[in-house]
Amino acid sequence: MAEATPILSVQDLVMHYTTRKGDVSAVDGVSFDLENGKSLGLVGESGCGKTSIAFSLMKLLPDNAKIKGGSIYVGGTDILQLSHDELLKFRWQRIAMVFQAAMNALNPVYTVGDQIIEALDLHWGDLSREQSRERIGQLFEMVGLDPKLMDRYPHEFSGGMRQRAVIAMALSCNPDIIIADEPTTALDVIVQDRILRELKKIQEKLGMSMIYISHDIAVIAEVSDRIGVMYAGRMAELADGVDIFEHPLHPYTYALMRAFPSIKGEKHELVTLPGEPPDLLFPPPGCRFHPRCPRATDVCKQEQPPFADNGRGHFVACWHPMEANHE
Amino acid sequence: MNMTVQTSSVDTAPPLWQMRLKLALKNFKSGWAIFKENPIGIIGLVLIVFFALLAALHPILMATAWEPAVYDPITGYDFEILIHPSPPTWIPQPDNPMWEFSFRHVLGTDPLGRDVLSQLMFSTRSEFLLGVGAALVTVLIATTIGAVAAYYGGLVDMIFMRIADVVYMLPFIALLIVLSSLFDFELIHLALVYGVLAGFGGTTIVIKSQALTIKVKAYIEAARIAGGNDLHIIFTHLVPNLLPLSFLYMMFTVTGAIFSEAVLSFFGLLDIRMSWGLMIQTAQAAGYLLNSWKYWYLMFPSGVAITLLCAAFYLVGRALDEVVNPRLRKR
Amino acid sequence: MGKYILKRVGQILVTLLIFQTLLFVILTALPGDVTNRMLTNPDIPPEVRERTRQALGLDDPVLIQYGRWLGNFLTGNLGVSYSEYPKPVIDILLERIPRTVVLFLTASIVQFVVGFTTGRALAWRRGGFFEYGSTVVGVTLYTVFTPWFGLMMIFIFGARLRWLPLGKFLDPVIWRNAEITGLADSASKGNYVFTRMLLTASIAVVLWLLLTIFTRNMSTRRRNRARLGGTFLILATAVGIWAASEIGYLAWDIVKHMILPVVTITLVGFAGTMLLTRQTMLETLREDYIQTARAKGLPEKVVRDKHAARNAMLPVFTGLIINLPGAISGGIITETIFSWPGMGITLLNATTSEDIPLVMGTLSFIGLLTLTAHLVADVTYAFLDPRIRY
Ligand SMILES: Nc1ncnc2c1ncn2[C@@H]1O[C@H](COP(=O)(O)OP(=O)(O)OP(=O)(O)O)[C@@H](O)[C@H]1O
Ligand code: SF4
Ligand SMILES: [Mg+2]
User: Domains of chain B (ranges plus CATH)?
Assistant: First the structure.
């Protein structure tokens, strides 16, 4: 497989939240690449660290978060080394974010148009007001909104319209990468799915790279070229979508697949496994999945399995992977 | 919860009031745990206790150490001191050859020869009575109206809420100034009027909205379906759940009432013989304002006392706010 | 928007009616009748009392009296003052209302700006000394006994430091010798100058509003520049005109008399605004749109001062509206302490001299003032919060 330079390359990312009770190990040695124009889906149970990764990529973390190690290369520069001012220029221009279904992602006291103009003013120098409005008109048409709506306030938009406006805002500065993080509380599943598909189309048309985040593997499978399965702050398995579905190697992924019903569209939580995901304040030693893993052995309890390529870019972190019958 | 009481065998279940008491005790304990985390509330509480001690100590001192002819807050006069007002006796007075160290007048004497500390302590009691009296009236009215308006809704609700809108927009102090000068206002009248005004006004609005959220809870519905009498439901289910909030608003009412009393008596409009407001007024009217540093014992104790006592109840109110409204709590 | 304002006006009118009714009830509940108190002023001849009795129709049925009371209020026929006999009450009030309004408006704006700015700045620093320090100072100022605090201000800045006058509206010595053609006594000279000051301020406000409207469609950077420059220009012109005019020093005298009461009201009032701002800022900073603003690459200062503060302003403004009656009470008290000849001192003097028509007139107008302030604040709020505009 011919390796192009990835637009995004994350290596051994470690991120902790400091709390009064101790450190929450929310991201622990996560690595992945994202190729230009491709999409990556991150999937995992609630609290496994998906959002933490997304915010690390923009270096947009709460005060109590600390990136302990690793590197994040975007188009060749390590953003963890950027100065504060460089970082401000980097955000939105290189990586933008769609806060999906976040009803409150738009500031209620400014018009939607003004909130986009703000980003344009910041990153594209002093556009005249007419130029900015023209640009927003284009963006609105692209996401299927009437350009006349740009002078409206967020509360005059329906939930779906708001999501589209947020997408338009993310597209405004032509970013290289867009992250779409779906919180666990989606409002309207049908609208959500449709918008996600439209987003996918726009992404392909503009040739951008995309990271989709969801706890629902069905959604992820539909829109992503590669899929990363996360468990308790670590990447369990990372492979092309087809491979993950047809030949899951990690016992956790395997359990997910089995739990996944064949009738498409039916939503459900990924809690069919016995037990619960660990408290990241006190993660279990060795493989973090071992307390729930049917294949666990002594080595699993003591040593962390390496995140290794199993051929064809199929990465897995497991001492005893499922039968790999690729060939 | 009531359902379990009804379905389980009656003779083994403790009576309802006992369970309620236990629950209240539990709530109180957890509330107290949150309250005492907050230094603001503790400061307020300490201040309140301090003033309560002052108030309680006064009659005791009058009966024992303090001779009434000298220390009576209204009619007392110290003949042994030639010039009134006189500074605290424990502070050296270089230009006074008669001076000797003593605690005879800890805060000096006022222009009429009366002991300032005695006045201060004597007034504390009436401030408490006034504040708590007004607050009780307010809470009684506001809780009842709030609960009734929320429970019945419709016309009853609308009427009371309109009244509340009006009352809360009234220029309180202006109205009190007029009332107290046109009618002979004593402390008890002030407590009543203030309590009624506050009770029909803003407090009702807050308590009603809280009552609305309780009204939709399952146990009220259950009680209603079980055929409970309306009044019975209001007073056994709705009102007890409103009490924490009412208690919180009591604190703010106390602050307001004490403040109003001080203003009115400062303007000389209250039919009252001694109070903190009056003490300031006496000193100011006698012309000691422009020399406040020298006559600090005339200008400061009462002013600071009013401020501190108002602040104390206000602080406790704020701290209680955090107990009652979890939204405000820090994680 | 129009509908909303109309609804509020309607509510306010109903409230006013109820307030007037309440006043009437108080009046009729008074022992004896209104004219009893006329006896206390020896300057009023007895037949005047009889005439007033008839004019007031005190022997008519209560309902007719009530109707007449409302009618009189609407037509501004508030009777004749007893203590300043034979001045009509409405004349006295018309002279004093602007003074109260100016003082109250200035103080309110200053205290809001100061409270909001400090609260916003405090939200930057969490915990530790600043949090408790600001809370302690804030609560102390918030609950301080206003009359006493006012007296202390007079004592420190007036008597001790002698920076500012001790009180009152103007310095009689300066004004006695002031030459204003056609006016003899200080009072009418004062009114002459004061009216012109009010006019200047009103024109400045209108100009400023026009400026805001005309710069609306500019690009962000140009708009900010134009607004800042325009505001400065308006202020400079206004001050310049007054400085050059012959009565400039008189206006300055009035301003000097205003400073201490304004500062007092500000100090007493800003703490509440400050504490509320800090708390709502901290809550607002947790909102999703703040995260969005940060993601867009906006500097932290812009995120807080533009996005967070603008939203935090809404509950703070609501708090201000809720607190309005309290603020007016505080204003009345402060005015009285500083002998500022506005509504407060008029009310107090009228009550102590049992000048019933003046008492009732003043109280009516204080009520009207409170309600108008409420209306203005509500409408302003509707402009601040787009969610209300429909
Ligand atoms: N600010 C914070 N302080 C402390 N712990 C945090 C903080 N934010 C997140 N965490 C913890 O870090 C872990 C990862 O959280 P994260 O939000 O990244 O999960 P997620 O995969 O996005 O979950 P979800 O699907 O619910 O959005 C969780 O255990 C969470 O409790
Ligand atoms: S390493 Fe061991 S415990 Fe972990 S997933 Fe593989 S088999 Fe299970
Ligand atoms: Mg998340």
Answer: 127-326 (1.10.3720.10)
